[in-house]
């Protein structure tokens, strides 16, 4: 369980990290496909191979960014769970 004080900027930070991770993964696929194409692999085959090869490469090269995304998702999930529990208590007439 991740316990972090609520912070309004967590949502913006998470959105930024997800966008950065997505762009980095797309760039990685593009670079791998371009390299394969330059060594003589047909374009369609190089694009397909690049998608397959980018997954393990991103695990190695983008680990820190992926960790930030995972941590941000855990924080947001815990916050949503706490809010949901608080609303359930209010619906049942319990004070928090």
Describe the structure.
With 96 residues, this protein is mainly α. The protein has three helices and no strands.
List key phrases describing it.
mainly alpha, 96 residues, 81% helix, disordered N terminus
Short account of what is shown:
With 96 residues, the chain is mainly alpha-helical. The chain has 3 helices and no strands. The protein has one domain.
The portion of residues forming beta strands comes to under 5%
- How large is the radius of gyration? 20 Å
Order of helices and strands: HHH
State mean pLDDT (0 to 100 scale): 88
**Total count of helical runs of at least 4 residues:** 3
- Largest sheet descriptor: none
Number of strands: 0
Please identify the structural class as seen in this structure.
mainly alpha
